[in-house]
Specification:
It is a single chain. The chain has helices at about 15-30, 35-65. The protein is mainly α. The protein has a domain at about 10-60. The mean pLDDT is about 85.
């Protein structure tokens, strides 16, 4: 069954920007019948932000100095 395409607000792009892939999935399921192109773009945006977050976490974790086993604490 084909649904007529309605133009939806660009504010839907804020959902994947703030909530990542979860927001993209939510926006996708809400928009998929009214505006399928915007729904796909929201999903892709959520995936891209998730990947950027993973890369940034890896870079930050790699730049942290290693922890000593003793932590210089005398018990």
């Amino acid at each position: 069954m084909s649904y007529p395409e309605k133009s939806r607000s660009n504010a839907w792009f804020l959902l994947p920007i703030f909530f990542g892939v979860i927001g993209g999935i939510i926006a996708f399921f809400i928009l998929r019948q009214d505006d399928p192109k915007k729904a796909r773009n929201c999903l892709y945006l959520g995936i891209v932000f998730m990947m950027i977050g993973i890369v940034l976490n890896i870079l930050i974790a790699a730049s942290m100095p290693g922890l000593d086993s003793g932590f210089d604490v005398n018990i």
